[in-house]
Design brief:
about 325 residues; alpha/beta; UDP-N-acetylmuramoyl-L-alanine:D-glutamate ligase; four-stranded mixed beta sheet; 14 strands
């Protein structure tokens, strides 16, 4: 028996979320906004917490500074039942803090800083892969996986242990990378999950079918294009399908993709079909957008299942 169902590897940050920012100054240096709040975030944090809420045994491998932001993240992970034993804490680098401006429709823009370029090497801790059934890399093109050599070592170690491998993507920020930079890793990845902008960046295409083909041609076994308000598109060599979105009033889209992916990988472990897993994942992503913060709205698997049933009846 594996110690974990899913191991999430990637960033852990604190999000300072500003809603309703008014660009008109009220004084020489002062501005107003509807609200400001602090939330834990980062794809590995969001994914591990969501999967834990859905009943999975989850763990996170990430780096945190020995600072108040790091304490905030680790305490929250523990409270949600995520195994924090693999977290690497250091005085050498601060915990990243992101400032996010959220518009009325839930769309957002973020400001990163040099702390997001932390020198973390997950490939040094690959013994942890012997204790898990799935691993989620979040995200290619961003630290720590902005280094293709690091990504290669991690996916190779997972493949050697017959661990299912999922990889999310982000648009590059500090280090410019292209899909072809990861050519030796992609054939080992069971599923990659870019959003529409990331898929366009990687493929040079605008049509989801052609975007997906570019990833399959690069060797990935399956791909999910997250289309936001337009749903999602899945493609492998055996099948392809499109699922429309759920109609919902979005408040904050922060972490919606991470909730989606956590829902999908959780259902894959439960033996669900691709369509059923995507339906569940769509619901997780949609629910996430109904409250401010990536880990706020979704409570548990029962809530998601009841929400899916209610939408199917409407």
């Amino acid at each position: 028996m594996s110690k974990y169902d899913i191991l999430f590897i990637g960033t852990a940050i604190v999000d300072s979320i500003i809603r309703g920012f008014d660009p008109e100054p009220v004084s020489a240096t002062g501005y107003r906004a509807e609200s400001g709040s602090l939330h834990i975030g980062g794809e590995a944090v969001n994914g591990s917490i969501t999967a834990a809420k859905l009943g999975m045994k989850t763990a996170i491998l990430c780096a945190l500074g020995n600072d108040a932001a790091g304490d905030m993240i680790e305490n929250a992970l523990t409270a949600y039942g995520v195994d924090t034993g693999l977290i690497v804490r250091s005085d050498d680098h601060p915990t990243p803090v992101t400032t996010m401006f959220v518009a009325e429709d839930g769309s957002r823009k973020s400001i990163t800083n040099k702390a997001h370029r932390y020198n973390f090497h997950p490939e040094q801790y690959m013994e942890a892969l012997s204790d898990t059934r799935e691993v989620v890399l979040g995200s290619l093109f961003r630290a720590p996986f902005d280094d293709p050599a690091v990504a290669r070592q991690v996916v190779a170690a997972a493949s050697e242990r017959d661990v299912l491998i999922f990889a999310d993507t982000k648009l590059p920020n500090f280090t410019k990378r292209k899909l072809e930079d990861y050519a030796d890793s992609l054939p080992l990845i069971d599923c990659i999950t870019p959003n529409e902008d990331e898929a366009r960046y990687c493929s040079g295409e605008d049509d989801p079918e052609k975007m997906a083909e570019a990833f399959l041609d690069a060797g990935v076994r399956s791909v999910i294009i997250k289309l936001g308000g337009k749903g999602c598109f899945f493609k492998s060599r055996e099948e392809s399908l499109y699922l429309p979105p759920y109609e919902i009033e979005a408040v904050d889209a922060s972490g919606a993709g991470d909730n989606f992916l956590a829902g999908y990988v959780s259902e894959v472990l439960r033996g669900s079909s691709v369509r059923s897993a995507l339906t569940f994942a769509n619901a997780c992503g949609a629910l996430c957008t109904t409250a401010v913060g990536a880990c706020t709205a979704l409570r548990d698997r029962q809530q998601v299942e009841e929400w899916v049933r209610s939408k199917s009846r409407s």
